[in-house]
Queue: 3 jobs
Job 1
Amino acid sequence: MIVTEKSFSEQTYWEEIARCKTQFVNNGEDPLLNPYLRKEVAESWIRSKNNGVFPWTSYSKYYLTEEEWGVLKEQNERLIHIAQPLISNYLGLASTNGHSLELFDPSGAFLLGIHINISSTPVLSIVFNESTTGTTAHGLATYHKKPFQLIGPENYLDVWQNMICSAAPILDEMGEVLGTLALVQDMGEKPWEKNRSNLHIHSLGWVSSLAEAIGNQIKIQNSYDVLNQVNNDLRKATETLKIILEFIDEGVITIEPNGRILSSNHEGSRILNVNHGEIRGRNIGEFLLPRSALMDYVADKKTVDYMEEYVVNGREEKQYLVSLRPVYKQGNDELDFAILRFNHSDKINALVNTRSGAVAKFRFEDIVGQSEAMLKAKALARRFARTRENVLLLGESGTGKELFAQAIHNSHRPGGPFIAVNCAAMPRNLIESELFGYESGSFTGAEKNGRPGKIELANGGTLFLDEIGDMPIELQAVLLRVLQDKMVMRIGGRNYRQVDFRLITATNQDLKLSAQERKFREDLYFRISVLNIEIPPLRSRGFDIAILAEHFIENYAKRVGLPAAVISPEAKRRILEYNWPGNVRQLENAMIYAVNLSEEGQIMLSHLPKELSEKRTALPMVSEKECDKPEELFSMKDLEKVTIKKALERAGNSVAIASDLLGISKTTLYRKLKEHNIHY
């Protein structure tokens, strides 16, 4: 509310307000009921009185300490810096008319200005608010966030009863008060008789304009700060991105829709074989084959992952997997630029192999067994693992040939991929594409970007071809060429790709006989069988059977969260005497079956699979080579000696178990051992 000229000139107006304040302070009369007093002023009086402030209070005791004043100036540094020159320009005008121009912070602390005829006490460190000096114009302007004017007795302190104060808030971008500018006019005695109404009526508009000008300057400065901060953050982000791009081992290149190169990291420049400082402005098409579809994808604004491309450097062509990401102009779908990422195909293949489980997990230490036959096979495999020659693993199904292949790989090329292919399990019409891969569009159903074959994926590692005897004869010639030249061409391709891998093959067939019968290429047989290892069947591994059974029980129980079961003596005897035609794989399955049927942590004979629990299987017949004599007929004594040895081996040199397997007493077995001079 602005005081009108009429009210300013009426003595009654001044006296009625003064009387209202006296009645309020002394007698508790409600100032809100007085028609001469504005509501905002009355409410401020009430707050002031409730704060323990009275009109006769002196404000001289509300000083800030020097430290507090220093903090205050620092907090309001921008406000003071911008307001000071503007205030200085008007101080001369104000002081010649007996006025003062002052700047306060939101708490009412005095920041700038010169007081005229208020007090001889320095005021550069005094706080003026409802808790210290009661109602003031700058306090109301701060409280209500709008310009305010108080006349004479509306000011709460008696010392200001002849003052008129006009104040306006300085607001920030969010409408919050940064400070308040106040113009104080000393009207002297009987101000209603003074001809100054015109000046004080326009003073509120003048101080409001000045406060708005200061606020605008602060907003502009804040905008500059924000812009500078954004630019600084953008610069940091750009520099960080450049550094990150240099750390990665992929080529990252940005191009315009027409192929013009905008930027590249150092790896991208290296891939294109161009000096890093000279790559900008070149066209990506210069480095691609004429048949490349990359720019077609750019024109179509397509997103592409791992598309095979050849980068041409002179006469040399190198293959890379290129990913494409279009970037659109802001506000529409028009292509602004495209980002290309170049990966060497070997690195992607290694990643694919890792994620698809093409990793050898087993080492020689993981192959369980202490029998003479098994120790011999492991020793031979360890020796062969040191070389780069092809290895052929011979043995029945289920004997653990892949475990040996993985162990050999982990001794020779542990960092490379281990690619296993079962030639018998793969459909005949798919094995060629699986092994050799194919280019895009080679046949109906082929992936649009082509696909690497198992041989290509094995580059830098090991290719394990299980059941090699079941490979189609027509593919054997192609495999032989790959082994000879260390080059592979995809189906539908025109370029050979260099490959470097170690070949390990496995079979349960007699490949030599198959070669003689022309069911297997003889030249391929000789190529893959440079080093042969025979994996013994489980039935010839003696007490390894019991060791493996306990190993499988413990592993399975741990995997499913069950306590490890103990094999009863009766069940162990049956496990040891069984022939195990399915070898280690059959034994593992039998133990899983038994654990799931076991009760109270013990595996009984009835818990074993049907083929083990129903009837007793005799020990296998003794072979001719196991006898000490070369004659065609053997004496009963020789057969007895060999049978006892075999029983001891199967029982892990346990006389109790061996005697049970033989169906004789321990006493009889001890006598027979002494008789045949058998040491165990």
Note: The domain at 5-220 is CATH 3.30.450.40 (Beta-Lactamase).
Job 2
Amino acid sequence: MRENRKRWLGFGLGTLLGYVLAQQGWALWQLAIKDTARTLRTQLNRAPKGITFLEKAESAAYTRTHTVEDGIERIVYRPRERRFETPILMQHGMWHGAWCWELWQILFAEWGWETHAHSLPGHAGSLTQRPIARCTLDYYLGFLKAEAERLPRPPVLMGHSMGGALTQWYLKYIGDDLPAAVLVAPWVSHSMIRDGLWQLVTYDPVGVLLMLISWDATPMKRQARGSAVRFLVGPQAAVPLEELQPKLGPESVIVMYQHNPPFWRPPERVETPMLWIAGEDDPLLIEETERRSAAHYQADYIVAKGARHNVMMEHNYRETAQGIHDWLVEQDVR
């Protein structure tokens, strides 16, 4: 009996290991055949045309328009007293959507900036257009490109986390001629595996295993004591974890593989003025690696004191936003 149990246990573990290895092979093959230039030439948005949701709100300082059009959710804040003609385009990161920028969108509207936040396909209010497991950075980049092209002039591009990676990809593959780029606790410049994998494995080993089995990054935001989701905000955050966590959605795993050599290498030189912001207490994208990445791009660098990963929701979100505003003014963005 005991020998049979050992045999079946060995068979089960072997099958699981084989499945995980096959998944890794599939992922690497998918990335090896990717051609970012070809992806960007493709019409990616295949959602039904038309507006399916429209909501407007007003305050003394701004108007807010929330739409879902052609399958893409957008939240736009327009100041009543506009001081700057250049819009700010905000790109969210993994699991998030356009909603994550709310606190900053309000502040920037009060300071005279027009801001545009959108949700990638399969995130928040945007329609799912391909299985999450097949969503790659070049696929997401095509939608970011489309959002930039909707605007009347080149925007300030602001990206958080994976959105910061997409900002780097935008500058390399689409155009290094923006008024400015602001990277908020972004993925590192060179390799997420080298500078983030060990922190992730030690922070949430169960989540990593579940992620590899399911081929979905959703387990990383599960409700559990050791869940990696706790890296997003600290105990004093303006948006507490219990309010944030239910809003988080599914996410691809393959995107984290793609932001590594040989599939990704950062440009050696960037002409667009760049501001890099790191969370001082970010447990996964630690400040030391963020500082090194900022130095590669010769970016100006700010550390959000005592902040974890979601800098725009932390206790000092206003001070960090003020720093961005002041920096943009110094860059003569108008």
Note: The two ends are 77 Å apart (CA to CA).
Job 3
Amino acid sequence: MSGFVLRNGHIIDPYTGMDGIGDIYVTADGKISGIEPEVDVKRGEKPEVDQHRQHRCASLDVTGCLVTPGLIDCHVHAYEYVTPLGINIDKTCLARGVATVVDAGSAGSSTVPGLLKFIGEASQTRLFCLLHIARHGLADAGCVTCDGGGECDSLSVVDVDACVKTIKANRDKIVGVKVRLARNVCDQGKNEAEVYRRALQASKECSVPLMVHHSISSIPLGEENGLGCPGDLQQGDIYTHCFHGHIDNIVDLDTGRVNPHVWDAKRRGVLFDVGHGQGSFAWHVAEQCASEGFWPDIISTDLHTGSQAGPAYDLVAVMSKMLHLGMPAAEVIRAVTNTPARAIGKDQEIGSLTPGRQADITVLKLEDISQDLEDSCGEMRTLKKAFKPVRMFVSGTEIPVAAGMDWPNLDSVKACKARTAVFRADEIARKK
């Protein structure tokens, strides 16, 4: 591999504050050696050119493109062939501009060695993981809307000591704890509160974030006395699926506005993550949140076997949805680079174009389109702009970019509408 320079791209790096036209130099050993912007954004002056970098470099023209740190998808399910939800991360993430993924609880303390060895070591995509509080993780579990039972139906497998011991032995790759709070995966709600307490305890003992899936749950958003979610989450914890459309979503049913407990959590530093998935993004919820200036801190896909062919598709599709809602492009980039890197404690390694780091770089075009795109309820909105990955580098090695799926996938739309009708009827019946 020889060194190269990406020329004339619009570089956006929220970590350094770079937002302007410039060149990125990459060494033969796959590290960023320097950036030469037209204007140094921090000093407001043109920097001196480092002459040695101008020689013996292949020149790649990326005029008209956005050049960002390698994208990070902070919520996927990567344990292919072992869990029902597992996907091939090189084919579905890396080939679509994502350099790093965080597996969100596919494995627990008993099953994570296989995830790290047979997926992490075998993939070009960088893999970190959140350890499920249940020892077996999602080995026999699908979406929470399934009727087949769940990973926390028995408290005997919700093992704080095993979780803590495993995290402490693998801090380089295990970056947090994951729990799903939903009736269907916690013995119809009977175990939910205790499962939540144990997950909170494990994350606290290890000083790592807790990511919580919270929908179709018996636990409220917050209470004066008693457990709440995100009411009991702390700074740095992650509330995923923040725009889901189930009846217990973050928009208050009575006021039609974002619930005060949710605003309180955001103010104290709880991170809100899109976690789109198969059933966890509703246009009407996201639009209300956007109207109040409630933006996600992290944009992720919850990509798995049930969402990769729609309604999530890939990370750039979810990013495009947030852009459609009015989230500024630079903040969209922050939510898939610096913020997730910081959330998992890896912001000194990934999520930035800082010289000296591995050259994980995504090159995007922001295209004008007019295309409908579905949410998890089967509702459509017409997008006018979309991100498209055009070049991808991991540690300086170029990765071929694959064409994304055409959307909307009408089969996905039909399935989303059918699922939504069933669960809305069930939720209404529960509330009576």
Note: The first helix runs from residue 89 to 92.
